[in-house]
Amino acid sequence: RATELLGKNKSQEAAHWIDEHLKMYPNDSDAFALRACAYRDDGYIDYAVAELNKALEYWNDKCQTELYWIYEERGVNYMYLKEYGKALADLDKAYTLAKKKYKHNAEDGILDQIVMQQAHIYYVQKRYDEADKIYKKMVERNESEISAILGIARNMIGREEYKEAISLLDKCVQIDYKY
Fold first, then answer.
1. pTM over 0.85
2. pLDDT of residue 179
């Protein structure tokens, strides 16, 4: 029920159901992970991190929530809190766990999502070269990866390399005119 309510942007109502569930099952990692989403959706990022810490504490192989996802989610919440070192550490852990789990499809959307978040943190910290390494690796795999090309262009703008950035942005338009 709580998952359904979160999907309908009814985080407070979802939190109520989760609270009731946790009264009966106080060590339910999945419930803590869900409550973290409710807190995050309401802007209570510190509380979301605390719930994710509990989710990690009680996590086991029987949980429905993937372990990499908990680390990824906590990393994103740390990013919102501007605790970039912690965010990068959690995103690294999430990447390692996801790559291990999905070794046959190691370069799929899940891993790209994680590294895009890492690249964003590097951008915010003005560590453009580190962000570029991530984006360029994505473009090597797929020359039409617009989000990575845009990331490189954004970093160029940050370095005041405007002509080069415009060239990349033109490439994005050629790939998909909606950009």
1. yes
2. 66
Residue 28: the pLDDT is 97
Q: Distance (Å, rounded) from C-alpha 91 to C-alpha 39?
A: 20
118-131 CB burial, b ≥16 within 10 A, e <16: bbbbbbeeebbeeb
Per-residue pLDDT, averaged over 20-40, amounts to: 95
Please return the burial class of 4, using the count of CB atoms within 10 Å of its CB with bins 0-12, 13-18 and 19+.
exposed
Contact 9, 41 (CB under 8 A): yes
* Average pLDDT rounded to a whole number, residues 158-169: 96
Which positions ≥6 away from 49 have C-beta within 8 Å? 36, 74, 77, 78, 81
Place of tokens 């490439």: 171
174 CB neighbour count, 10 Å cutoff: 10
22-33: b (≥16 Cβ within 10 Å) or e: beeeeebbbbbb
Tokens describing residue 87: 């965010």
Alpha carbon separation from 54 to 36, 71, 94, 124 (Å, rounded): 10, 12, 17, 28
Torsion over CA: 56, 62, 68, 74 (sign): negative
Best CA proximity match to 90, nearest among 107, 110, 73: 73
d(CA 25, CA 81): 30
